[in-house]
Amino acid sequence: MRLSTRNQLKGTIAEVHLGAVMATVKVRLDGGDQIVTASITKDAAEELGLAEGQPATVLVKSTEVMIGVE
Amino acid sequence: MRLSTRNQLKGTIAEVHLGAVMATVKVRLDGGDQIVTASITKDAAEELGLAEGQPATVLVKSTEVMIGVE
Amino acid sequence: MRLSTRNQLKGTIAEVHLGAVMATVKVRLDGGDQIVTASITKDAAEELGLAEGQPATVLVKSTEVMIGVE
Amino acid sequence: MRLSTRNQLKGTIAEVHLGAVMATVKVRLDGGDQIVTASITKDAAEELGLAEGQPATVLVKSTEVMIGVE
Amino acid sequence: MRLSTRNQLKGTIAEVHLGAVMATVKVRLDGGDQIVTASITKDAAEELGLAEGQPATVLVKSTEVMIGVE
Amino acid sequence: MRLSTRNQLKGTIAEVHLGAVMATVKVRLDGGDQIVTASITKDAAEELGLAEGQPATVLVKSTEVMIGVE
Questions:
Q1: Percentage of the residues of chain B whose pLDDT score is greater than 70
Q2: Of B19, B52, C4, E63, which residue is 20 to 30 A from C63 by alpha carbon distance?
Q3: Residues 6 or more apart in contact with residue F47 via CB below 8 angstroms
Q4: Considering the domain B8-53 in this protein, what is its CATH number?
Q5: Does residue D31 register a pLDDT over 80?
Q6: Domain locations along chain C
Q7: Cβ(F14)–Cβ(F28) below 8 Å
Q8: Is the CB of D67 inside 8 Å of chain E's CB atoms?
Q9: What single DSSP character describes residue E32?
Q10: Cβ B4–F63 below 8 Å, yes or no?
């Protein structure tokens, strides 16, 4: 499936932390040392079988992205 | 100001496209060739004086991030 | 790619309206007469070649969904 | 109150799962078998008294909707 | 309809600016001089007949709110 | 850092509630008695050292704001 979602960044899962109904997942982006944190449902994390070291894509809709400048 | 926003990625503005009330801004992330697109208001783009080649930070709240795996 | 995105609803594109940098796309959900409207970038609408009558999936992260009751 | 929110889909609550501070609520859409999952605060779920079998409206702002095509 | 949406702030519309498919609406919050800007669809702004001086409620899901501290 | 984020409202933290991986933070806006609730990660709440009585800024991207009228 091709998605309208503009931002699809490649990386590797660095950490999965399951809570009660939510989970946080950290992904290290390829080609750098920048980390992206995702807050997703625990159900999603479990269904996808997310685990440290796994290749993953980080997806973000462009309307969710803010810009900061000095 | 320190922000609760988990994701603050460094990069350089690669393109600014102003529309009627919205604008799209593309930022090339440091340490790789990955591009992030932001849809922000035209007012914000103009007030910040965003321009190609300018260093910028991309900010995304963790609740807005999705994960994909093969 | 399998996505963490909880909501992936099947339907058919009913309308595509391109603006300056944004676009609105209406999708009629299968098995009912309910319509979902998406505001995406014009670039995404054009790259995907979205057109009336085309089957499409509507995706929404669960953190973006609100509930109302009488 | 009339809302700017474009997407207001009718359905019936199929499941409520309370966590520590968040809750997940599943709603079966009318006229089909499609399910929508919402991640809302536990406070909201409790204040609204959400319960299985209750009619409910699912609300999503159009800027939160993505489109996928084959 | 009662909503799960935690944030429902009262104010008065200070400005409506229609674009091609989007619109920006500024609302002055009651009891202060703080302004909130909303980016909604032009269709929503027109259907609601939004106009300067009109009382309005600003709604924001709690998962969309960030916190900053000095 | 100057941000594209249109909505930056001043207030004082009224409550911090930590969950398993998420937290809810309530902020009373200056110049009124209106409260804003934020759902952020527990990590963010802890790293910022958020505590009742602390001055704080509430940030919301304009694309996340909805409008309601009677």
A1: 100
A2: B19
A3: none
A4: 2.40.50.100
A5: yes
A6: 7-57
A7: yes
A8: no
A9: S
A10: no
D-F C-beta contacts closer than 8 Å? 40
* The pLDDT value given to residue A18: 97
Chain B, chain C: beta-carbon pairs less than 8 Å apart: 40
Alpha carbon C66 to chain centroid, angstroms = 17
Among candidates E33, E37, E44 on the partner chain, residue whose Cβ is nearest the Cβ of F7: E37
Q: Token pair for residue A21?
A: 């109904």
pLDDT band at C32 (very low <50, low <70, confident <90, very high): confident
CA distances from F52 to E17, E32, F14 (A): 38, 22, 5
Contact F20 A24 (CB under 8 A): no
* D32, pLDDT greater than 80: no
By the CB < 8 Å criterion, does A48 face chain B? yes
Burial class (CB in 10 A: 0-12, 13-18, 19+), D3: buried
CATH of domain F7-57: 2.40.50.100
Choosing among 3.40.50.620, 2.40.50.100, 1.10.443.10, 3.30.420.10, the CATH entry for A7-58 is: 2.40.50.100
Looking at this protein, which amino acid is placed at residue C56? A
What residue type is F49 in one-letter code?
G
Average pLDDT, chain B: 97
Report the residue of chain C nearest B63, measured CA to CA: C63
Report how far residue E40's alpha carbon sits from residue B60's, in angstroms, rounded to the nearest whole number. 20
Say if strands C22-29 and C7-18 run parallel, antiparallel, or are unpaired: antiparallel
Residues of chain A scoring pLDDT < 50: none
Class of the domain covering D7-56 = mainly beta
